[in-house]
Design a protein that fits this description.
The chain is built from five helices and 47 strands. The chain is mainly β. It folds into two domains: 94 residues, Sandwich (Immunoglobulin-like), CATH 2.60.40.1120; 551 residues, Maltoporin, Chain A, CATH 2.40.170.20. It is found in: Cell outer membrane.
Length: 832
């Protein structure tokens, strides 16, 4: 949205009237799949080839990729990963000669000796082998191998955040702006490949939050907590079907050392205002138990400028010139604590608790000049506002994982509960004056109080099994219940006494229950991999505007097929194709019909009658030399949910809402080119070109038809100055874009940073300057026929930052997995 307006709270749903028939159907589907798969699994023979991999310190190396080859033609036989003891196993029934190659990031590829099997199912042991750290000499400087900023994998693009100096001291929302194909506008709206409707996940789990609340969550998360960001444009059936433009999965850091260890970090930033954050991470592991926790505190302050010029059609026309300035302060306390208990080598149970306690305030002044032209003013509206917010959330997760066999078959389960409480309070002062300063009427005082409660419950079970050496089956079930309760208490000051404003006071309760089951079958041929999947989701929702007794209830089933094909043309050429059908249910704030005013002539409101939108996504990809990647995509969205700005002729006002526009068609091409210019200079360049068209025969009484080709270019330069000392420069340009009823102008910025490791690489010091030339801003106008307006918005984006991190403790035992919770998807639809 390209106007300042009051964000609404998402509330999670707990459908108490779910029919028993609905509960039974979906689990039965997957129970059948589990039974069939388990039958296949029991026929799998035991492994007969084994070995052990150690790291450079002669300790067991887990999660090392081990590929078994036939010595006669070097063809791939099987692939496995080492377990926490560094062991790997294969089952090979045929006679012949075999060798393996072991690879792991930061180490040289290890090739084994050759063994010969003279009998079927003969047992053999490769013995123990040791990895060697991979380094390269840059003249006399020893440079350790690090992950590139951007990596292309089979089903996603990965941006590695942890080693970037430009990311230092940034929030997760600011980091997202630097991801290829991702755009975050001045109002924190996130789009990917030019399209909105992105599903944000944390550690692979959905957040179940409104778009406004997701932005708040990411604004409160620090870059120091992020390991990488995964961009999944066409997800498989294993993922929730939400997100028409795909999924952005933010992976948080996981301590890779054992014993007792941790880190402390802190950063300071300054633009027009000071911002600071500090945090501590602790981890302790024994052979049976892993304990981990972290805490982060942040203080942020940001200025915002918005200017709106518009014409209200009438007899005669009325001209509005609005300028607003605001200052926002936020104080955040985020925490996480948990444990993993290792029942035995194959079974682990875990408990996780995380949450936040945040509060803040915002002051704003809006001056609106009103007259028969932009050069003639006959009245002025001055609006002063003061808002205070408080958001608290605590989430609990209980999880279990069991490894069923050495072929990688496993089952996992998660049970989650999350409770969110928030409150927004706003005070407004509206003062009408003549051009000479005299008041037209007495000052009007109003205030709002909006307490919110969101309750989330979820459970899921995932199962995967290798049916044979070339076929793998995945299946799972998931259910979530979310209930949101928003209560808008609006009052007006009359005769020095606050009175209820019956026109605006209201209560909105929304319940939603989604039950899902999925299955994926993957078949590996010699040079081709094919995966077919199907996800079934059954949705029950009920929106109740209590004050007016307006109820909108829906119950529906949906089927979401997926298809993925990967073809290896040669060692350096791979081709891929994917198709998926997806859904986007309206966010909670979009459904909430409350009205929130910027001033008396500018407001926003929800639309409880929104329908879900459905998308067909097609993508063709080509990868050259494992690093140059080109993808071409097409998508068609029916009943697309779009943010629109429309006229309110009766009140000469402008309002923002969401509406179902009939159709959105998109074509896109994305090219990623990393280049090693010299030994000390490498660059990664990403070009995203897309065409977006929107068509609606009737949108608020007028037909809408827009279409424009746009592009986005991002380039990152990394310079190795000396061992442990690097510099970065990032640049981005986004061309003009039409989206729904909005026509956006070009946007661009440049960031720069330095990073230096200290104290034998136990610490790092990073300096960064975002938006070096202070050019990042939003400028937009109307693409809606008959409506004339223009908006200019400038946030505080030019910020210098300094960040310091120190790591301490023992490094004896590698830690257990970290679990993401099953409600993080639902939480993606709350305020923080």
């Amino acid at each position: 949205m390209h106007m300042r307006y009051r964000n609404l709270f998402a509330h999670f749903f707990e459908n108490k009237h779910l029919k028993m028939k609905t509960l039974y159907r979906i689990p039965l589907i997957v129970t059948f799949l589990f039974t069939v798969a388990a039958g296949f699994a029991q026929t799998n023979p035991k492994p007969n080839i084994s070995g052990v991999i150690l790291d450079e310190t002669q300790k067991p190396a887990d999660y090392v990729t081990v590929v078994l080859f036939k010595a006669s033609d070097s063809s791939v036989v099987k692939t496995a990963f080492t377990d926490p003891n560094g062991a790997f196993n294969f089952n090979v029934s045929g006679k012949g000669s075999y060798f393996y190659k072991a690879s792991y990031m930061g180490y040289k590829t290890l090739k084994s000796k050759t063994i010969v099997l003279t009998e079927d199912n003969q047992k053999a042991d490769f013995g123990t082998a040791q990895l060697t750290a991979s380094t390269q000499n840059l003249k006399e400087v020893n440079v350790a191998v690090t992950k590139p900023l951007i990596e292309r994998k089979m089903d996603k693009i990965v941006m590695n955040v942890s080693n970037s100096s430009v990311m230092t001291g940034s929030t997760a929302l600011e980091v997202l702006q630097k991801a290829p194909g991702v755009t975050v506008d001045q109002n924190d709206k996130i789009s990917m490949m030019g399209k909105q409707g992105v599903l944000i996940q944390l550690d692979g789990k959905q957040t179940y939050m409104s778009s406004a609340d997701v932005a708040n969550l990411l604004r409160n998360m620090q870059s120091s907590d992020i390991e990488s960001i995964e961009l999944i444009t066409n997800p498989s059936s294993k993922y929730d079907a939400s997100g028409n433009s795909g999924i952005i999965n933010i992976k948080t850091k996981k301590n890779k050392n054992g014993g007792t260890n941790g880190s402390v970090n802190g950063s300071l930033g300054y633009g027009k205002n000071l911002r600071a954050n500090a945090g501590i991470n602790l981890n302790h592991r024994t052979q049976k138990l892993n304990l981990f926790s972290n805490y982060n505190y942040g203080k942020f302050e940001r200025d915002n400028l918005i200017a709106i010029d518009r014409i209200s059609n009438g007899t005669p026309d009325t001209y509005f010139m609005q300028v607003g300035e605001s200052n926002r302060k936020q104080y955040n306390n985020n925490f996480k604590a948990g444990l993993d208990y290792f029942i035995d080598k194959k079974n682990t149970i875990g408990l996780l608790v995380n949450g936040y306690f945040n509060h803040g305030n915002e002051t704003a002044v809006n001056n609106t000049l009103i007259g028969p032209s932009f050069n003639q003013v006959d009245s002025t509206l001055i609006t002063n506002s003061l808002q205070a917010n408080k958001y608290n959330n605590v989430s609990y997760n209980l999880n279990y994982k069991s490894v069923l066999d050495t072929a990688g078959s496993e089952i996992s389960a998660d049970v989650d509960y999350s409770k969110y409480k928030g409150n927004d309070g706003s005070n407004y002062e509206n003062d009408y004056r003549f051009p000479n300063g005299d008041r037209i009427r007495p000052i009007r005082y109003t205030r709002n109080n909006t307490p919110s409660i969101i309750d989330i419950k979820a459970f899921k079970v995932d199962y995967n099994v290798s049916l044979n050496k070339t076929v793998k089956l995945e299946a799972g079930v998931k259910s979530s219940w979310v209930k949101t309760d928003n209560d808008l208490q609006a009052e007006e000051l009359v005769s020095n006494a606050w009175q209820n404003d019956v026109k605006r006071s209201n209560q909105f309760v929304y319940d939603e229950n989604v039950n899902a089951a999925y299955t994926n079958i993957n078949k590996q041929f010699k040079n081709t991999s094919v995966q077919i999947g199907l996800r079934v989701e059954q949705t029950n929702s009920k929106g109740n505007l209590i004050t007016t007794n307006t109820v909108v209830e829906r119950n529906y089933w949906d089927f979401f097929p997926t298809l993925f094909v990967q073809q290896t043309l040669s060692k350096n050429n791979q081709l891929g194709f994917s198709y998926s059908r997806r859904i986007d249910r309206p966010s909670y704030d979009a459904l909430n019909p409350f009205i929130y005013y910027l001033d008396e002539f500018t407001y926003s409101k929800g639309n409880p009658f929104l329908n879900p939108q459905y998308t067909h996504n097609f993508e063709l990809s080509y990868t050259l030399l494992q690093k140059y990647m080109l993808s071409i995509g097409y998508s068609r969205v029916n009943d697309v949910i779009a943010e629109v700005i429309l006229p309110d002729a009766a009140n000469q006002s402008l309002y923002q809402t969401n509406a179902n526009i009939a159709t959105n068609i998109s074509y896109n091409a994305n090219l990623n080119v990393p280049v090693q210019i010299t030994k000390w200079w490498q660059t990664n360049n990403n070009l995203n070109v897309f065409y977006l068209s929107f068509k609606s025969p009737d949108l608020a009484g007028s037909a809408l038809k827009t279409g424009k080709t746009s592009f986005q270019f991002k380039s990152q330069q990394t310079f190795t100055i000396m061992d442990g000392f690097t510099a970065e420069i990032n640049g981005s340009y986004e061309s003009p874009l039409d989206y729904g009823t909005l026509s956006l102008k070009a946007r661009y910025y440049v960031d720069a940073g330095l990073s230096k490791s200290l104290f034998n690489k136990k610490a790092s010091l990073k300096l960064a300057l975002s938006d070096v030339f202070n050019m990042s801003e939003n400028n937009l106008s109307s693409a809606y026929p008959g409506l004339t307006y223009s908006v200019h918005q400038k946030n505080e984006t030019q910020i210098g930052r300094i960040s310091f991190t120190y790591r301490f403790g023992k490094n004896e035992i590698k830690p257990a997995r970290r679990r993401a919770t099953g409600t993080e998807a639902e939480q993606g639809r709350m305020k923080n």
